[in-house]
């Protein structure tokens, strides 16, 4: 068992590219920390530096209180699960799982006992004699997990371990890995680009963008109080509605709509953000957006209502940054240029149809404000 | 929108359906058969002549079957060549084994366990492939003589092993390039060192490269004439290729003996192809990774 401390870690490649810039993180003993961000954000590089598979350009890495920058990967007592599992193709499941113990020259009876124990933990008892190519994706994933946990290492590192599984299996394995990690109590760093995975699995999540740490916190904290426009746009599905607005005389003007501004808000120009679940069908008075419905999506438990708001779009920029590439301007179906596509969550039985006019209630308490220039969150 | 609706619709060209002729396979087979016959005619002459008596072997009867089938030439060839066949095996087997092992090690450190400058070293290796035997023959012979390298078969084997380094390194490096790096990293995380990774993870899945490299080295060393005739001075140590060349008589050429000797000398390489060819394994990597 061990805590991990990353102190101002940089990764610079010979061609000058900086994959990780000044990353500082403290991961408590037994914690499951999820590193999340769009592809190319440096999360895998960061993980590989902790593993010892990449050299650290500058900064210090501590595991269990010891500086391990110059410690070989084999002496760091770390196990890693790879994205594509990297099982040894010529070995059976049992041999794959036992390989590290065999190298450590553990006694035969101990190896046998530990393999059995690990296989039971993962439900692999009946597959021990098979080879990787005879296994399904989910089973291979489990073998990869088994190979990591049999060693009882101080730290687990997982590099997108579920991204090769289909959606249903991914949800199931997500729960299994989380439960297993809690049961074993091993400090774990988990890398994913999937923000849903991050929100559901992590004790805490760390959001990275272009090698720079954006925010660390509990999933609830990051979701409710995003540190900047990027985190706001990246975390949450469907993503937060974001549009430019002006502030005058104690109210926020979002296109035609006027919403009450919090007293501390001093800026003149802001980006307003509101999560889809904080927009409902208006019932009685209160601030509301008047809208004509573009399209309606039923997602079972709720109805996603898409509508244009006549304020300049700010979502595209956040999303473009989040997905690491240009995104088509999120121009609503109706409304045209200079408007933003908003999404609201309605009751499934509200029977709203495309083309109808609705009144969308806004809870002023749940609005987020961002500086349009620095993209940082504005707070009291 | 209006301008858009006026543009003529884009029509996908209708693919011309060609009627598949019934006779096509027949024509194809006829053509293939023709080529096969052209290639096999010399082999036919080789085989029939080897079973003729010496009186029948003149050019005017080259095409006809022997009147009298006899293995006289074969037994004569065997008597004459069997010591040299033995020499060839003593040369080729160790040289091939050492070459492919070296090739596997070289390929591994040039692709999967890279050291700084590995690519430059590999490029230099490749130069070795483009230097013709003739260019190094004399300096090589003199050098081996000067350093008193054990003469005879060991000396020739050594020359072939050194000359095999570029091609075997190339074969293994290219094969290892297809093995995902994650597998090496997984082994590193399982605390395997370089030699352990090579031995336990890489070697067991290297069979296809071993087969290719072994066939290559076996046939090229077996068939070599030039190095052998230069490096080995003692006729008793000559491999079969040199001995075969010496079956040519000074006045009369006994064709039947030559043909059977030639067949005899080429049998081992044929057998290697037939035996090892079956072990060209595919899909050994299946299941290691997703997909």
How many structural domains of chain B?
1
How many domains, in number, for the residues of chain A? 2
Determine the fraction of residues in helical runs of chain A and give it as a percent range. 10-25%
Distance between the termini of chain A: 40 Å
Mean pLDDT of chain B: 84
Based on secondary structure, the structural category of chain A is alpha+beta
Strand order of the largest sheet of chain A: 6-7-8-3-9-10
| CATH-assigned homologous superfamily of chain B | MetI-like
The share of residues in extended strands of chain B comes to under 5%
Count of helical stretches of chain A:
9
What would CATH call the class of chain B? Mainly Alpha
Give a structural overview:
The complex is a heterodimer of chains A (about 375) and B (about 290). Chain A is built from nine helices and 21 strands. Chain A has about 375 residues and is of the alpha+beta class. In chain A, a hairpin with a 2-residue loop joins strand 11 (about 240-250) and strand 12. Chain A has helices spanning about 45-50, 95-105, 110-120, 135-150, 165-185, 195-200, 220-225, 230-235, 315-325, and strands at about 5-10, 20-25, 30-35, 60-65, 65, 80, 155-160, 185-190, 205-210, 210-215, 240-250, 250-255, 255-260, 270-275, 280, 290, 295-300, 305-310, 340-345, 355-360, 370. Chain A starts with a strand and ends in a 10-residue tail after the last strand. With about 290 residues, chain B is mostly helical. Chain B has helices at about 1-5, 25-50, 70-110, 120-130, 135-145, 155-175, 180-190, 195-200, 205-225, 225-230, 240-245, 255-275. In chain B, helix 2 crosses helix 12 (about 255-275) and helix 6 packs antiparallel against helix 9. Chain B is globular and about 75 Å long. Classes of the chains: A alpha+beta (about 375), B mainly alpha (about 290). The interface between A and B is medium-sized, with 30 and 26 residues.
């Amino acid at each position: 068992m061990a805590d991990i401390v990353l102190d101002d870690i940089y990764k610079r490649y010979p061609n000058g590219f900086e994959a990780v810039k000044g990353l500082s993180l403290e991961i408590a003993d037994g914690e499951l920390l999820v590193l999340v961000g769009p592809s190319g954000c440096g999360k895998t590089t960061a993980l590989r530096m902790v593993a010892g598979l990449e050299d650290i350009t500058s900064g210090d890495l501590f595991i269990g209180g010891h500086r391990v920058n110059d410690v070989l990967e084999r002496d760091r007592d770390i196990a890693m699960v790879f994205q594509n599992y990297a099982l040894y193709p010529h070995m059976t499941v049992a041999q794959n799982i036992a390989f590290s113990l065999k190298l450590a020259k553990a006694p035969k009876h101990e190896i046998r006992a530990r393999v059995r124990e690990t296989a039971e933990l993962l439900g692999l008892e009946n597959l021990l004699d098979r080879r990787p190519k005879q296994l399904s994706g989910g089973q291979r994933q489990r073998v990869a997990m088994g190979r990591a946990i049999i060693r009882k290492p101080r730290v687990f590192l997982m590099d997108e371990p579920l991204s090769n599984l289909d959606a249903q299996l991914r949800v199931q394995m997500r729960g299994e890995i989380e439960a297993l990690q809690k049961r074993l109590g091993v400090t774990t760093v988990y890398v994913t680009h999937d923000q849903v995975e991050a929100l559901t699995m992590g004790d805490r999540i760390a959001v990275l963008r272009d090698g720079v740490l954006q925010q660390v916190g509990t999933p609830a904290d990051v979701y409710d109080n995003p540190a900047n426009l990027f985190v706001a746009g990246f975390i949450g599905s469907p993503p937060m509605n974001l549009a430019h607005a002006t502030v005058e005389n104690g109210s926020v003007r979002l296109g035609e709509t006027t919403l009450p501004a919090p007293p501390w808000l001093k800026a003149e120009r802001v980006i307003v953000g509101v999560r889809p679940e904080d927009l409902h069908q208006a019932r009685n008075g209160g601030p509301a957006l008047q809208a004509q419905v573009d399209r309606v999506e039923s997602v079972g438990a709720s109805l996603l209502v898409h509508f244009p708001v006549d304020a300049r779009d700010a979502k595209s920029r956040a999303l473009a940054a989040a997905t690491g590439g240009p995104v088509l301007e999120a121009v609503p179906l109706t409304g045209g240029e200079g408007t933003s596509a908003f999404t609201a969550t309605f009751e499934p039985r509200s029977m709203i149809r495309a083309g109808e006019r609705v009144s969308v209630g806004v809870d002023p308490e749940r609005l987020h404000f961002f500086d349009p220039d620095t993209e940082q969150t504005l707070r009291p | 929108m209006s301008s858009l609706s006026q543009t003529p619709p884009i029509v996908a060209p209708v693919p011309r359906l060609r009627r598949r002729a019934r006779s096509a396979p027949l024509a194809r087979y006829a053509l293939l058969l023709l080529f096969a016959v052209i290639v096999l005619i010399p082999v036919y002459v080789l085989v029939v002549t080897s079973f003729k008596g010496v009186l029948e072997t003149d050019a005017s009867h080259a095409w006809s079957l022997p009147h009298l089938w006899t293995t006289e030439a074969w037994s004569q060839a065997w008597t004459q060549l069997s010591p040299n066949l033995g020499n060839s095996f003593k040369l080729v087997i160790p040289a091939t084994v050492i070459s492919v092992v070296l090739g596997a090690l070289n390929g591994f450190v040039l692709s999967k366990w890279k050291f700084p400058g590995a690519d430059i070293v590999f490029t230099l290796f490749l130069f070795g492939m483009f230097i013709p035997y003739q260019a190094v023959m004399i300096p090589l012979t003199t050098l081996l003589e000067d350093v008193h390298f054990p003469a005879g078969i060991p000396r020739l084997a050594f020359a072939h092993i050194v000359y095999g380094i570029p091609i075997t390194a190339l074969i293994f490096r290219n094969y290892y390039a297809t093995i995902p790096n994650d597998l090496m990293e997984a082994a590193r995380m399982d605390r395997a060192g370089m030699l352990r990774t090579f031995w336990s993870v890489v070697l067991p899945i290297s069979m296809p490269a071993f087969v290719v490299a072994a066939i290559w080295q076996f046939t090229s060393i077996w068939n070599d004439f030039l190095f052998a005739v230069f490096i080995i001075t003692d006729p008793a140590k000559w491999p079969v290729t040199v001995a075969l060349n010496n079956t040519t008589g000074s006045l009369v050429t006994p064709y039947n003996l030559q043909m059977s000797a030639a067949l005899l000398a080429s049998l081992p390489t044929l057998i290697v192809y037939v035996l090892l060819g079956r072990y060209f394994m595919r899909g050994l990597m299946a299941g290691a990774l997703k997909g």
